[in-house]
Structures are given as C-alpha cells and as structure tokens.
Amino acid sequence: VIFYISFKMSIYSIFKLFVLNPRSTPQIVNALKKNKRQLVNFLSSFQIDDSDPQLEEEKQHVIQIIRSLQ
C-alpha cells in the first residue's frame, strides 16, 4: 500500500510539471486541451495525502489551469 501511494504521488508530480510548465510544447498543450474534461474529472476525484493541505491547494491550481485552456 505504501508503495502504491508513493508511486501514485510520483506520477502526479511528473504530470503537474507538464501542466505548470509555462513553456510547454504545443503538442503537450493540445493533448491537455483535447483531454481537458477527462483530466479535470480524474483529478477532482484523485486522492492526495490528507495530511498536507498544500498538496490539495496545488491540485486545485492544476485543475484550474487545465480548465482555463482554450
């Protein structure tokens, strides 16, 4: 279980780098736009470590950025 949580957080950390990178390639931005609804739905239900409220705030920021893509 601990390995799964650690793995899940590692994958999320890599994903958020793609979203938060101000110099993302057009291919990355297009992939995020194309999958915007699915990504927002997934991230909305994605459980982050409850003991760190900053991680939840960061997740909400990532969701907000994805929603704002046009």
Can you offer a commentary on this structure?
- By secondary structure, the chain is mainly α.
- The protein is 77% helix and 0% strand.
- The chain contains four helices and no strands.
- Helix 3 (36-45) runs antiparallel to helix 4 (53-68).
- The longest helix is centred in the N-terminal third of the chain and has 19 residues, at 2-20.
Question: How would you classify the helix and strand content by structural class?
Answer: mainly alpha
| Helix count from the secondary structure assignment | 4
Tell me about the largest β-sheet. Answer: none
- Written as H for each helix and E for each strand, in order along the chain, the element string is HHHH
Give the topology, please:
Elements: H1 2-20, H2 26-34, H3 36-45, H4 53-68
The gist of it:
The protein has 70 residues and is mainly alpha-helical. It has helices at residues 2-20, 26-34, 36-45, 53-68.
Provide tags for this entry.
0% strand; mainly alpha; globular; single chain; 4 helices; 70 residues; 77% helix
